[in-house]
Write a structure and sequence with these properties.
- With 206 residues, the chain is mainly α.
- It has a domain of 134 residues.
- The protein has ten helices and no strands.
- α3 runs parallel beside α6 and α5 packs antiparallel against α10.
């Protein structure tokens, strides 16, 4: 079971650092409720499970294969983040111009799940992260198939539990915060997402 707990630690290690995905999950829960926030988190967690499985099977070879594509993936990720943040600001402006700004927009569970799955898959650093963890302990020599499976399960459960917590935070904020504070929070969140996307671009240029 040591491999399972190593997977749990790895899952929390990649999921907990606050970034664009975490902000978007909280925003989704705040704007659309827990069910939509949960599906957003499930999409992100599914990508973590996918990367954990690939890393457990292919390890450093897969990370090396993705290295030539890293720059293109970073640019694509930045474009997506800026687009999502800009779209969020546009929706927020439309919502505040309506009579009831707190009315939730039409839900689309499958679309929300696919959106967050795709956005998280754009991050090649996740593959390198899991590969480094596995290879760092000599897993390419003594990591059995059963241990690899336990590692992936542990990482997936840890990531999903954290993403679910973010969805709960967003849903609670939706219930307890005033409409004005919700608007301000969404505004700040979308601006932060745009900023993170621009930061990726600047890092690539510099």
């Amino acid at each position: 079971m040591n491999s399972f707990w190593e997977g749990v630690l790895a899952g929390y290690g990649i999921a907990i650092p606050v970034g664009a995905i975490a902000i978007l999950i909280v925003n989704t829960g705040m704007q659309r409720g827990f069910s939509e926030g949960f599906l957003a988190g499930a999409g992100a967690a599914s990508a973590d499970i996918f990367f954990a499985a690939l890393a457990a099977i292919s390890g450093q070879a897969l990370a090396a294969a993705l290295a030539p594509l890293a720059e293109a993936l970073q640019v694509l990720s930045a474009v997506v983040l800026v687009s999502i943040g800009g779209y969020g600001l546009w929706k927020l402006r439309r919502a505040t111009s309506n009579a009831d700004p707190t009315a939730p927009p039409p839900t689309g569970g499958a679309r929300t799940y696919a959106q967050f799955l795709g956005l998280t898959l754009l991050n090649p650093l996740t593959v390198a992260y899991f590969a480094a963890l596995i290879l760092g302990r000599g897993a390419h020599l003594n990591f059995s198939p059963a241990e690899r499976a336990l590692f992936v399960v542990g990482a997936g459960l840890a990531s999903l539990s954290w993403q679910t917590l973010l969805a709960v935070i967003g849903a609670l904020a939706r219930r307890r915060l005033s409409p004005r504070v919700q608007v301000i929070t969404s505004l700040v969140g979308n601006l932060v997402v745009i900023g993170l996307g621009l930061r990726i671009v600047l890092q690539g240029v510099l």
